[in-house]
Amino acid sequence: MDERDASEPVSEQAGSAGAGAGPGSTPGGGTHGDDTAGPDAAARVGGPESGGARPDRSRGVSRRWLFGASGAAAIAGLAVGAGTTAALHGDGSSTGSGGRFWPPSPELAIGPARVAAPPVTGLHLQFGADAAREAVVSWQSPGSVRNPVVRFGTATTGFGATAQAQTRVYRDAASGTEVYAHHAVLTGLTPDTDYIYAAGHEGATPELGTHRTAPAGRAAFRFTSFGDQGTPTLGKLDNGRYVNDNLGSPVAGDVTAGIEHLAPLFNLVNGDLCYANLATDRIRTWNDWWANNSRSARHRPWMPAPGNHENERGNGPIGYEAFQTYFTVPDSGAEDLARGLWYAFTVGAVRVIAVANDDICLQDGGNSYVHGYSGGAQKRWLDKELAAARADRAIDWIVVFMHQTAISSADKANGADLGIRQEWLPLFDRYRVDLVLCGHEHHYERSHPVRGVLGSDTLTPKPVPEAVTPATATAPEIIDTSKGTVHLVIGGGGTSAPSNGLFFPGQQCRVITGVGAVDPGTGKKAPIYVMEQAPWSAFKDPEHPYGFCAFDVNPGSPGGHTTMTATYYAVTDTLKPVDSFILTRPRSDS
C-alpha cells in the first residue's frame, strides 16, 4: 500500500455527522455546518488512490455527483407518496432543464415533506443472503410511518426498482421509548455492480446511498475491521463512574473518516458498537452512533458481531433486542431468541463468519450474565458452517470475527477467555480457519499463527514458527495460514478507555478461567484469573490507542496461491501504518 495515501490528515473533529448525508454533504459523507463534525470531515482524508484492491471509481455511479451540490440539492426534495411534481434527472435537474434523464417513475417525485412525518435516520447497508446479488437497506424512525420503501437502480436505469421495507419495533426497557427500524431487501442485483438507492417513507425526505455488490467468484477486494467504537458525542450526560456517559471519544468519528478514506467493499465491526448499555439514555446513544457512521454505512455494508455491551438489561429475553432490531443480517436458522447474533456470508472466495461470544465466554461482561444461552446451538451451527466452507473448492479463506478474545497481553484489562479456547479454538484448528478478528481489549495485538495447545490448564495456543517467513528490509512478514490461524485484537475503534498502555512486559497473559461471587463494586460475577506465558504474541502496539485494520485480497491464479495483505493503521492526525503482514495459502482449486 502506498504510504503517501495513508498518511494524509484525518479530521480531528470528524464526530457525529448528523442524521446522515443530505443537502450540503461532502463526497465522503460529512455534513457542513454540523457542530460536532468538522466540515469535509471524511473528505479531508481523501486523496490519491493507492494500489492493491481499490474500487474502480471510474465506472458506475459517482458519489461525488450523488452528494454534490446539484445532485443532492435536487434529490433532497424527493418525497415518497408526494403529489404530482417534476421528474428527476441524472444531473439533479428536473424535467425541461436539459439534464440527463432518469427513467420516470410516478413513485419517485420531488415534492414537499409532510411536516408530521418522522425523518429518515441511521441509513445503513448490510449484505443479503447472497452478497453478490442481495443487499439490505435499513433505517430508523422515532415513530410509526406509512409505506417505508426503497427505490434503487444503476446509473443507467435510475431508480427503476422498488423494495418494500418490513418494520421491526422494540421498546427500550430503561426509557419506555419505542424504536422503529425499517429493512428493505434488494434482490436480483448484478454482481460487482454499483447501485444507487433512495430510502424513505410517506411524507419524509428520502435519504440517498450507494452500494457496490460483492463479486461472484474469486476477485480482488478490500475490507476493513475494528471494534469498540463508542460515539464522538461527549459531555451531554456525564457519568461519574465512567470516563463519560458511553465510553466515547472524538476519535470514534476519525475512525469512521479513516474507513471512508480507504473505501473498502465492506467493514466488520467486532462488537461493542456504542456502549448503550452503560449510557443514561440508550436511545440517544444509539442515535449518536448511527449519526456518526451512516456517512459510511450507507455506502458500504457495516457487518456487526455483538459484544458484551450490546447486552442491555430488559431489552429482550437475553438483552440483545436493540441490536437485533437495528440490523438484518443473513439468516443462520437460529431461533428467535438468538436471531441475527451469528451468521455468515461469502465475498469472492472469502467466507466471513460472525459469532456471538457471550454465549460461550466465562466472563460476566454485559448487563446480564447469559453464558450458555444457546444450549449449544451456536456451536453446532459453527461446526457445520466451518466444515462446509473448508470443503467448498470455491472458498479459499475463512475469516471469523467476534468480540471477546482468546489472546491478550494486557494487564488490568479483560484478558483472554478460557471459554473461547475451549469451545471455538478446536473448531478453528480442525477446519484451518485463516484469520480471527476480535475487539474487547482496547488496543492492537497480533498473534503468531497458532495450531493446537501447549498442554497447559489454560489451553495456551501453540505457535507454528514454520508457517512464518520473517520480514526483511524490503518485504513484510509472510504467514502461511494453511499451517496456523492468526488472531488479531483490533479494539481501538474510538472508546475513551484504551488499554494500549496496559501491556505486560515481556510475554505474559491473564486468562479468565471462571467466575466467582458477585462483586458488590461492579455488580458482576468476579473473574478468576490464571497467569500464563504468551509465546503466541507476535506484535503489540503500546504507542497508539486507536486504529483499524485493512485487508486487501488477491485471488492469485488457478492452481496457485492466494494472498491477503493486512495493514493496521493507527488513527492519529493521519492514518499511520503500524503493522503490515501478508497472509498466504494455496487456493482451494489447487
UniProtKB/TrEMBL annotation:
Keywords: Signal. The keyword Metal-binding does not apply. Residues 1-60 are annotated as: Disordered. Residues 17-31 have a biased composition (Gly residues). Residues 122-203 form the Purple acid phosphatase N-terminal domain. Residues 266-444 form the Calcineurin-like phosphoesterase domain. GO terms for molecular function: acid phosphatase activity; metal ion binding. It comes from the Bacteria. Coiled coil: none annotated. The keyword Signal applies. PANTHER family: ACID PHOSPHATASE RELATED, PURPLE ACID PHOSPHATASE. This is Metallophosphoesterase. It comes from Nocardia nova.
